[in-house]
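BUG-276 | component: ligand-complex export | severity: low

The export step for flavin mononucleotide jobs runs without errors, but we want the raw record kept on the ticket for reference. Input record follows.
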Amino acid sequence: MSNRAQEHFGERYGGEGAAPRFEQWNEVIEGLLGHRSVRRYTQKPLPEGTLEVLVAAAQSAPSSSNLQLWSVLSVQDPERRRRLAELAGGQAHVRDCGLFLVWLADLRRLGDLASHRGVGHEGLDYLEMFVMGVVDAALAAQNALVAAESLGLGTVYIGALRNHPEAVAAELGLPSQVFATFGLCVGWPDPATPASIKPRLSQEVVLHHERYGAFERSVGALDAYDRLMERFYAKERMGVQGSWSRHSAARVASAQALRGRDRLRAALSSMGFGLR
Ligand SMILES: Cc1cc2nc3c(=O)[nH]c(=O)nc-3n(C[C@H](O)[C@H](O)[C@H](O)COP(=O)(O)O)c2cc1C
């Protein structure tokens, strides 16, 4: 029985709605419900072996047909970190974290293996295989994140690596058909700037039963979430202007709002992905 897990449940929904009656609260659920992204780190080194343990946790994730269409790249060189931080829109935590991992959708290894065995690999040119690589990479990364958090480490994903996919690929020496899906910062959280659990949409919005429910059923709960997040932004001094729905909608208002990622398909084509 973990009371902390139940507390985290409450915080996850901004204190609105009680945790369900449930006998099996445990430390794994406590860890998952307690997640928060960390963007400020101390310079204290990570324990020896951390990288290998995180990669083992990542490799323990399920993988479509066990094809293992992903790889991970650890970047420690300070100059390379600095350049990646700039490519990711000037995110200082990419530079300052203890470990920076780039999670790769990697179709190349299977292509090379097929060639090595003297068989074709036309199947890799299909969108399905790209999706498989991205899904595998994401599941692996999330396992590493959960393992890191269980050690008291902080983490934050860096999707902004996709702002400049070709430049990131050049910086990391990625061959064709290898795509940097996102980065992950890992490090000791700076106790001077603790991160809080960020509330999520209520379950009535995201959880459907049997058949997909119409948007209209969620309008009231979405309004309530906006009010909740406004209080959260103010409490955390996040400087976010407007409501969650306003800035979420703004993120998809136009191609320009994707901040360079609107040309991802073209970038992927130039990087050797068929996406047929
Ligand atoms: C795929 C992915 C990419 C992300 N990219 C960034 C990023 O580039 N920079 C950043 O500060 N946070 C990034 N985040 C973190 C999200 O902003 C964060 O998960 C979200 O605001 C929820 O907050 P929480 O993780 O603290 O619960 C990313 C998260 C995911 C899942």
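Assignee comment: Attached the raw record above. The first strand starts at residue 70 and ends at 75.
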